[in-house]
Amino acid sequence: MVVSIDDIEHVTVIGAGQMGRGIGAVAALAGYEVVINDIDEEQLEEAREEIEWSYNKSIENDAATEREVDAAIERLSFETDLETAVADADVVTEAAVERQSIKEDIFRDLDAAAPEGAILTTNTSGLNITQLAEVTDRPEQVLGTHWFNPPMLMDLVEVIMTEHTPDAVVETAETLVEDVGKTPIRCRKDVPSFIVNRLMRPYGEEPAWMVYRGEYTFREIDSAMKYGEGFPMGPFELADYTGAIQLRVEGAEDHLEDDRPLAYDTDVCPLLYQLYEKNRYGQKTDAGYYDYSDRDEPDIPVDAGQGFDPLLVWAPIVNEAAKMVQHDVATVEDIDTGAKLGGNWPKGPFEKADEVGADAILSRLTEVAGRHEETNKIAETLPCSLLVEKATRGETFY
Question: Where does the 3-hydroxyacyl-CoA dehydrogenase C-terminal domain lie (predicted)?
Answer without folding.
Answer: 194-292, 314-377
